[in-house]
Specification:
globular; two-stranded antiparallel sheet; eight-stranded mixed beta sheet; alpha+beta; Glutaredoxin; 10 strands; 22% strand; 213 residues; disordered N terminus
Length: 213
């Protein structure tokens, strides 16, 4: 049964998660070295994340080593998302087009991770993200794996019924809209907070890639 108190707790958790991310920059005064950035907020020291194993749209496994050598933006969401996900992926398509001019070996990447494995098959996720840009990576996993992965990036999500008497399959997902940036070593290096600025995102990732950090 749908409980408004539980929903309130989940929404507070979402807000708290965003606050914890922001706190890392408010209270961490040491300026990271590197190119001057417009919208990316870098951690003063990149943070190692636990090993993970996600399933990609081509049914291959996505493990940390697959992302090494590239700056990677990670965005969590779900294909039934009515607003944040399509808006975000659409906004990032512009930067991705600009990144096509960079060498493939160091080109920035975008990884979309579905946190709705009950409805989002890997094939569906692949079709969904490629409608925005052909280079977008996509993956999902079972719920325990997703929870560990999302938590390691200081992100949060929650399954929420559409109404008090909604059947089990009638729900939405509340989730962080923050983009997490992984460095070429696969560490959490920073975040991008909405509202997104596509031109600034494009330029920041180009600068980081060319700096070879």
């Amino acid at each position: 049964m749908f409980d408004r108190k539980i929903l309130l707790i989940l929404l507070v958790a979402l807000a708290t998660g965003a606050g914890l991310i922001a706190a890392e920059y408010v209270f961490d005064r040491e300026a990271p070295k590197g190119p001057e950035l417009q919208t990316v907020r870098l951690l003063s020291k990149p943070r190692e994340i636990p090993a993970f194993e996600l399933q990609q749209s081509d049914r291959t496994q996505l493990i940390p080593g697959e992302l090494r050598g590239h700056w990677t933006l990670v965005f969590i969401g779900f294909t039934f998302c009515p607003d944040i996900c399509p808006t975000t992926l659409s906004a990032l398509a512009g930067p991705q087009k600009r990144w096509e001019a960079l060498p493939e070996a160091t080109r920035p990447r975008l990884l979309f991770v579905s946190v709705d494995p009950e409805r989002d098959t890997v094939e569906r996720i692949g079709e969904y993200v490629h409608a925005f840009h052909k280079d977008t990576l996509s993956a999902t996993a079972d719920i325990p794996t997703l929870e560990r992965f999302v938590k390691s990036l200081s992100l949060v999500y929650a399954k929420v019924p559409l109404s008090e008497d909604a059947p089990p399959d009638q729900y939405t997902i509340d989730h962080s809209a923050t983009l997490v940036l992984l460095d070429p070593q696969g560490r959490m290096a920073g975040v991008i907070q909405p509202p997104l600025k596509p031109d600034a995102i494009a330029q920041d990732l180009i600068a980081l890639s060319q700096a070879g950090r």
